[in-house]
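Below sits the subject:

***
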Amino acid sequence: MDPKKAPGQSNDPAQKPKNTRFALRLTLSLIVFAFLIITMMIISVTIGVLVSQGVLVYGQQNVDYANIILFMAIGSIVIGTLLAAVIGRFPLQPLNQMIDALNKLASGDFRARIKTRSRIPYVQELASAFNKLADELEHTEMLRSDFVNNFSHEFKTPIVSIVGFAGLLKEGDLTEEQKREYIDIIERESRRLADMATNVLSLTKIENQAILSDKTSYNLSEQIRSCILLLEQKWSKKRIEFSLEFDEYNIHASEELTKQIWINLIDNAIKFSPVGGVIGIDITRYGRVLSVSISNTGPEIPPEKIDLIFNKFYQADESHSAEGNGVGLAVVKKITELHNGSVNVNCSGGITTFTVELPQR
């Protein structure tokens, strides 16, 4: 038993909302009950005053009790309605605030928030739930805007390059060296577009995938070495060295999907490593979890951008001068989540390290 919890305290997260809903019903019930008590007291006091003044005498004849009772009832209704209108404003005030805030959200103002000093549980829960909703909507709107801007830029840039250099080739009057250079640029930009389209399709496929049906047991260490060989042309061109510190480990996962993790992370490390840099890869096991770390020397990711680099089409290099399209890390994150794993990044001392943790089975 958790020593911090009182005996009999529920651990069910659904219990708290139920308790606050009950508190709301209890509060409204107490208000109605209070109105009834107040109305009864008013009637009792009025009758007492009438009796003390001799207006009402027990057993007295020729007294129109029906009109008196009707008068009392009407008076009670009027007084009770006024009290309800005045006192009822307090428990309903959070609802009015929420209606106003919802209207702001509906009009596109995602900065709307509910601020309350009330200590009533249901009021606090209402404000907290609404503010979380507003935070998510504001964040989603920012991502949507960034996505549209980056997506348009990433697709437009290579297309403009292809059209421009194709036009120069069409005009003629170029040396053979210039022709080869322009053709190489067109080929590179066309490949960039093809890779971008492939990555977007892969990401869409992965995002729509809820379960893994192709999990097998295979050698994770050998898979990573194969991914390094696949990228040999890129890292050899920059004279990059690899430091591999791991034994042989087997894992039960989707071999096709995890391969995309290592290719994206290693390719990322190559891209941002300086000429003659070093990329380190390490595999360790913690219980039933395998941790793969891929580190590279070079420029660090600014702290304020670390939480954004896993978003679709986001690039820490705002000039877009580096190769890439901002999809690879989004793919990495989604695949690790499909495997019930996690990915994080750490930058310090001129070294950037991506760490992927996956359950061994």
